[in-house]
Recover the amino acids of this structure.
């Protein structure tokens, strides 16, 4: 196991380096960078979208009224006075100690900015994760035990309809129905807590938080129910039809004993092995559309704003961090295979 883990960690290094290199190169060719953005504002052109490029490698036309010395000062301010290779090497050295620098747009440290956005993303992702696994696994088992029944057909129809409806469309429907749109005004529509949350007691705070999370979590979780439910059902169906189950039944074992003593530990492997990656992702994922519709200031909205504002320290810093998290979660998923099923060895996992 130790040799396998070490080999995977060593493979993470070139993977991480390659992801960062490709992204860094792409940012060098994207028009409307931070220097051009500042030049456009100085010239009174408003935003990046109102300034047209004058040609490959040239500054934007909004910069043509400024003297060269001022332009060079702006380049030095954002670090663009150095060659790209030097900037990339310096950036990677800083990233090794998790120094992601300062945001161009928010004028604060990238680490502090991400930490300030995490409560929203953690709330949305973690509750979605709990609901998906808490509902889908029992439902999938029930459907497998009643395959082809009326319950199976009706439940499959419902979850597939939910899967077919985009999350942002469902969010709008929920607002119209329960958020004071055209019908009932039951749930709040802004933030994860009320403005007077700090004035409430402990129980009232918990209830206020849960009340705010009902609609966004519902809109986020419904689309994920179908995949996990059908995965669970098909996994159990495959095991139920195997010879050892027929043998166990022939020996007179009850259906409950066959299911939970023999079938469960084999059928649950595909579900459990995806648990580490899904659990880690629940802390850091964010949905732009869900967060925008429900006025949630989380990681999804931060990612969108960073890209649109060419906030490269945030874009590259968060990409570096989340790439590491993704690689680690994949490693934990492979390790979980062996933990859950001792028959699998690392020699067979290449």
């Amino acid at each position: 196991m130790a040799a396998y883990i070490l080999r995977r960690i060593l493979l993470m290094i070139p993977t991480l380096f390659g992801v960062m290199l490709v992204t860094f190169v792409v940012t060098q060719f994207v028009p409307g960078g931070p220097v051009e953005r500042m030049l456009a504002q100085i010239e009174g052109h408003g935003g990046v979208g109102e300034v047209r490029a004058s040609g490959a490698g040239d500054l934007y036309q909004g910069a043509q009224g400024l003297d060269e010395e001022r332009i060079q000062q702006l380049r030095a301010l954002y670090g663009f006075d150095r060659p790209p290779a030097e900037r990339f090497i310096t950036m990677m050295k800083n990233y090794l100690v998790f120094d992601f620098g300062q945001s161009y747009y928010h004028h604060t440290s990238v680490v502090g900015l991400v930490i300030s956005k995490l409560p929203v993303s953690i709330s949305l992702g973690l509750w979605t994760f709990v609901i998906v696994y808490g509902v889908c696994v029992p439902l999938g088992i029930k459907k497998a035990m009643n395959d082809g029944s009326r319950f199976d057909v009706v439940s499959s129809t419902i979850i597939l309809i939910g899967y077919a409806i985009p999350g942002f469309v469902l969010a709008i429907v929920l607002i119209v129905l329960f958020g004071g749109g055209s019908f009932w005004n039951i749930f709040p529509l802004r933030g994860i807590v009320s403005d007077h949350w700090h004035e409430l007691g402990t129980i009232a705070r918990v209830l206020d938080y849960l009340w705010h999370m009902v609609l966004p979590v519902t809109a986020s979780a419904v689309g994920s129910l179908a995949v996990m439910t059908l995965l669970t059902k098909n996994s159990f169906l495959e095991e139920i039809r195997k010879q050892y189950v027929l043998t166990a039944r022939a020996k007179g074992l009850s259906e409950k004993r066959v299911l939970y003593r023999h079938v469960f530990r084999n059928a649950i492997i595909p579900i459990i092995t995806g648990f580490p990656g899904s659990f880690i992702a629940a802390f850091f994922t964010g949905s732009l559309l869900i967060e925008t519709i429900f006025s949630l200031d989380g990681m999804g909205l931060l990612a969108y704003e960073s890209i649109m504002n060419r906030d490269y320290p945030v874009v590259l810093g968060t990409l570096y961090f989340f790439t590491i998290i993704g690689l680690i979660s994949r490693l934990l998923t492979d390790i979980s295979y062996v933990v859950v099923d001792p028959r699998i060895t690392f020699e067979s996992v290449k």
Summary: The radius of gyration is 26 Å. Residues 45-63 have pLDDT under 50 and may be disordered.
